[in-house]
Write a structure and sequence with these properties.
The structure holds 2 protein chains of 2 kinds. By secondary structure, chain A is of the alpha+beta class. Chain A has 6 helices and 10 strands. Chain A has a 4-stranded mixed beta sheet. Chain A starts with a strand and ends with a strand. The model of chain A has no long low-confidence stretch (mean pLDDT about 95). Chain B is built from 13 helices and 1 strand, in the order βααααααααααααα. The chains are: A alpha+beta, B mainly alpha. At the A-B interface, β2, α2, α3 and β6 of A face β1 and α4 of B.
Chain lengths: ~180, ~325
Amino acid sequence: MTRYAMVIDTTTCIGCGDCVVACKTENKVPEGLNRDWVVEATKGTYPNLTTEFRSERCNHCSNPTCVTLCPTGASHLWKDTNIVLVDPDQCTGCKACIAACPYDARLVMHPGGYIDKCTFCHHRVEDGLDPACVSSCPTRCMHFGSLDDQGSIVSELLKTREHKVLNPGTGNDPNVFYLV
Amino acid sequence: MTEELFVTARANDLIDPGLQIWTWEVAMYLFLGGVTAGIMVFAAIVALLNKDREAPFASDRLAILAPIVLSIGMAMLFLDLEHKPYVFRFYTTFRVLSPMSWGAWILIIIYPVSILQILSTVRRGVPQAAGFIDRLAPARALVDWCEAHRREIAFIAAPAGVLLGVYTAILLSAFGARPFWNTGILAPLFLVSGLSTAAALVALLTRDHGERAWFTRIDIGLIVVELALVGLFIINLATGSAAQIKALECCVMGGPFTFAFWVLFVGIGLLIPLVLEILEMRGLGKTLALAAAVLVLVGGYTLRHVMIEVGQRSTWTSYETQYNAELLDRLEYP
């Protein structure tokens, strides 16, 4: 299985939201819905505060509970990779996958009614391109690649930089990493 | 202080500001599924223990309610689906690791078992149908067979009912992403609640005083067990992971569902009917038993409703999705 990962440098992200706009444009995400979003996290006690910006989306987990708990197989892995997709023709809209996602990264498509989510732009990945959000980032804080390739940019960054994932305690083994 | 705000829009319907994917329809299904489970189990127990004379309603007519109650519940589930035309997809596959897939197939098994259970006493339960059945040779043969094999059918109906009673809870507890549900205690809690509501239903519908007394006594035992399981549930979460402790504290130990959980479910749904049923056992009248039975049914629904509402809100993430002036208070000036 090819394990794709996204590595996002929180030290160079400025929270501009271009990744969000790029995703909406590339994937024609309807008004009012978002497959990705940016979080501003502030920690500390005034005046010693630190702020980080995080561009967030589906983590395309190595242990995807949304896929496991889907009753119809609509949530599935794309072509022997960790990229989680939803097949609208198999989705009943039961919303079990939404409850199963510890990152609240899924949404109900309007007006369709099936469940939708970030696809890591698999249609672009298939053509050897980066996801739209990564391509459009003006500060180049977002990186995409295969963790199986030791020479890939994502492998290199994770080897050399301190990093974290969101909610590691869930056991979902997420594949979106944040450089800190 | 930790403050996590969206700086780009995210207001996905049913997801933000907190998960509201499942509402009363699902709670109602969980409740009616539990009642159906209890109906099948009690109808089977009466058959297996040869208690037809002591429990005429449970013996002859109770099982008739099972497919009716379950069908109403399944209609509620259908209402909840967002992609309704694709409902058939539940039955084009079987996902062994998905409790919901198990549930979909369990429901398919429940119907024929339930029908056989009804047919095994239909001549006594619905005498009006007897003449009609006996006029049709295949129907007569089938009913004859069911009557002859009533015990064997009960042997299948009892575990089928238990399966129906626990699967919904296993489904919820399998959601590791929802800390409030993520405990195995939920399965016995839902099963006992289902049995209790079915016992209350018998007490409510039977015209036989002895049967009402018998099921009231059964219900007293079930309510005591349910109270113990509620206690274990609370202990389980209170001593669980940080996410579980937070889920418990934010919702049922001083949050928006504290009243519903403690007053409506534990108080009005369990403790008051328990007291009323004990009083009824001491000969204080039929009205109390009927009131107790109604309260047990209300409590059974409230348990599911609170579970659904609180569980989906319990989360590993803690974003503030809209401007909240109270956040300013979190700034701790030295």
